[in-house]
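Chapter summary example.
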Amino acid sequence: MPQDRPDDAFAWIDAQRERRDRDGLVRRLSPRPADSPLLDLASNDYLGLARHPEVTAAAAGAAHRWGAGSTGSRLVTGSTELHATLERELADFCGFEAALVFSSGYAANLAAVSALSGRDALVVSDAGNHASLIDGCRLSRAEVAVVPHSDPEAVRKALGAAAEEAAGDGTGAGPARRRALAVSDAVFSVDGDVAPLAAFATACRAHGAAMVVDEAHGLGVLGEGGRGAVHGAGLAGAPDVVVTATLSKSLGSQGGVVLGPARVIEHLVNTARTFIFDTGLNPAAVAAALASLRLLRREPERAARVRTVAMGLYGRLTAAGLAAVRPDASVVSVRAPSPERAVRWAADCRAAGLMVGCFRPPSVPDGISRLRLTARGDLTEEQIEMAVDVIVRTAPTA
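The structure predicted for these 398 residues follows.
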């Protein structure tokens, strides 16, 4: 192991690198060419819109008209008419009063969680939440209670304990009701399972808590015409529900959005640090997301097709004897024996012409490595058969 030297401030990095090498957890960048011959089941382009002619033409047109960048923060010069149009149409499509566009889905989650909680608040967070929600909890300075995955009763108990604490000694002389917030993915990114949103909402309402739901993997896939899992659960537009989403998955672009009551959005404009101090999303990305949203409105069957492809992959892989998790949306998770074998399996798939995701610790909360396949609505039956054949043929032996 490298020895620390007084003149080597980063000697500790070498020790961590060696540990990653031993554990099979090294990650490397793999730049792809524009015309990659690989069949892609690793990206999050669920509707196949990232290269759709209408979407790319909208992006190019916006770059020519508005310039390559937004030129400043949203509160200075970074808001354009395109931003306002996208916000109106996203809010209308998803069933909320208002929306606010951010430079990324990550920034949207940091904003929603941190600006709606605070030092004296309680945030109840699902153990399976995405890193951006986890980081939002950390930045919030609130007390954070991490509860078991998809467990509404655990959410209820955590909120109930906070309510009892706020009640003081029971004489009515205690402090005012404590601000509380429950946060959860709508569709969890590792195994693709949908959260029990209606039950979560019931638990929150029993204690006057708000709910923030990340629709990164639900928008464009679940709900009526792809309006998301929250819409499908009958919670869209509720006064105590806030939704975040990314524009980089089903909408094939870049950026993020927070949707909710108008007063919540106004509060974020004035308090959310990742909105106030960040450069606005570039106009080309805004226009691309807007074009994709309009395509989805016009062709709502795209959302159903994604789910059909996901179930087709799952059915064929499990029929071949592989351990896969039944998908609720677009993500199909296939278990691997170990981190090293997962990496080898993904590499063998790539060599055979198929790109798949590879999830290993610490990215997976349960410590189980897996291939992560993302169903795309534009895949043909021949491409699905090819993908299944490659995955089964290259699967590691027990």
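To summarize the output: DSSP finds 14 helices and twelve strands in the chain.
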